Hints:
Oligomer: single chain
Low-confidence stretches: 200-211, 306-315, 319-323, 669-687
Amino acid sequence: MERDKTYLITVWGLIQGVGFRPFVYRLAYDHNLRGWVNNTNENVQIAINANPEKLKDFIEQIRLQAPPASHIEAIDCREVKWEEFDDFRILDSESLSDAVTEVSPDIAVCADCLQDMKRQPNRMDYPFLNCTNCGPRFTIVRDLPYDRDHTTMQAFKMCPACQAEYGNPLDRRFHAQPTACRDCGPVYSLVLYDSQKTVDDQNFEFRKQASQMVDHEAIAARTAAIIDRGGIVAVKGLGGFFMACDARNEDAVRRLRASKHREGKPFAVMFRDPDAIREFCMLDPREQEELQSWRRPIVILQNRMGSDSVAKPGQEPDPATDSVMQLAPSVSNGFPTTGAMLPYMPFHYMLFEKVQTPAIVMTSGNLAEEPIMISNTEAEEILGPVSDAILHYNRDIHNRCDDSVGLVVNDRFRLLRRSRGYVPNPVRLDLETEGIFAAGAELVNCFALGKGSQGILSQHIGDLKNFETYEFYRETYERFKRLFRLEPSLVVHDLHPDYLSTRFVKELNLKAIAVQHHHAHIASVMAEHGLNEKVIGVSFDGTGLGDDGNIWGSEFLVCDLEGYERVSHLEYMSMPGGDKATQEPWRMAVSYLYSIYGWKLMELDLPFMEKIDPESLEMVIRSIEKKINNPLTCGAGRLFDAVSALLGICTISSFHAEAPMRLEASIRADHPGDHSGDHDPAGGGRIKDKQAIYPFTAGNVIAVGPIITKIVEDIKNGVDRGQISARFHNAIAAVILETVNRINMERGIRKVCLSGGTFQNKYLSGRIENLLSEAGLEVLVPLQLPANDGGIALGQLAIAARRRSMGLI
């Protein structure tokens, strides 16, 4: 056997704040190895005395047994000068440079900690316990290295028992920075409001008078009682406040909608467990896997009732006809789907032990489109008057962070909103990104920072259309700069000069470049998949300023990271009233009809026109005729708006993209338009029935007038709108397939990247991915980031990095 040597092992990746050092310590202890492990702001370093055989086995076990929330990017090992060690130690963290290791996202409470809530005396029913494998991370961290003094736990001095666990390398809570117990940690307070919405002083807090220890079990019981009797409770979560009520109580849900000024957008629902979900929704193994992962996202699921039998808002369920349990109709508000999630904080589990309902609405604690609230005082001032109680705790949230949202398409999970559980995990790039700040777009904004070869995306910021969200954007930018030790030298922004993200970049007075919106969409997919070659990019969304000054959004590009060529797009159409058309989809329906029928559209006598004020209708037609305030758009989103309005599904939108979402929801699998039974939940399959596809005219400019004409004909003939919707979606899939095939034949490019908000449509995206794959093409889609504008900053970052490396900037 070879003699021992001294080796230095360096590990990179998501290894900070996830119990990696104690894991290494226990592994070394089991292998009878001596040396040390050290956590720096760049990586984890391990020094050991070992022979080559033991070294190989040790490194292999590091890879195989690493903590669940960790992610090892690379391991380097080299022999160094001999140093004899007496034991194995964990050294104090140190800062070596401005480089950083990854900051862990927040992690759902683990099964071991849930057991400790029932068996450890100092943690019985204590809702702030955690260990190295679970608990808050990003939401409480202020700086690196990730140590207690750099988190909002700094205010809580550990008791002797917790300190002993924290200092014991063999304990599960060794260096678990948020560790606490009933004797030394944060506590909840329940603020109750009477019928006049003033604080009920007699029940302000539940405390045991003798010890002054908070009785969290009593708080959970009282919170449950409020929910069960139809009340609304504002609850402080990991990354901000949420508003909660019984998801089966229609009156409570309606009152919550009125309180939030949220008329149409569906609410998310937290269920007790997967079995409870199955009572209300369809749940396949892949969806359950995501729901139960340590990230605990919201997953969009199909309701068990199906789209034909979901009760409409305001319509109570009929026990005589309902074969399965239903949520209150106003939860999903006419959609055949529900955003479902499972408990991820200890208090969630305590609450479900007390509450009668198996399903609780958990919607962001904000009003209108403002950022999620994190301040106890702000919540009491703003949410208190519209709630029956405020449940908060005395640990600060430093980084606000909404729940993440996604859905499963073709057995792969796709993000719609990237936030808690994912942020700030970086995306690894084959590019040098150091010093680049990518400002993102305007809607569902996220920005990105370049660090080394990483793209570090912010949490979901929201739509940059009000002061509060813009301030959240600015605040988060400053915090990310500090946390990741970055001082930008180059900034990149959207081509649109009026976006607040673009204006913010101008204020920085740094070297800046503009990137076209849809090129950035495709570049984000390329960056995620490590591509820098010519690809066919299909970017379908609602809006993005084009090089010709018009509004783009149905782009077929041939591009790489350096540049792009626009090969094809849908025909341009007038957008009456500009942005107002996004709020009133009927305007786009009228625009498409006018392009075909002129003033004779008034003679069509289509049912949707009955919902429109005659004077407004005439005014819009005249504005189109005279080209007054009618920018040109080829955005796919506006076409979906038009069809949704034509069918009378959504003529006025109460939230962003409502019309396309309701159009997709109207598709019925039992109609010939949906393949005569050739439908699957992912929307895949071949288009076998040619009657299922509306006609269109392909080419560099794709004419969709024939589609509109056929839809009008079907409406006049009384064809079911679910069938019309299916045929329309199939036609768009056929448009994409035929156009991509033509470009492939002409250019010999087999890789196809799909991005843009339109591809959040589960039916369409699942179908087109399968059709393109069956045609022998390699289809790439966003998986680590959303297809919507929430992922666009990564594309901006990649384009800027590539152009800089080529000396083009």
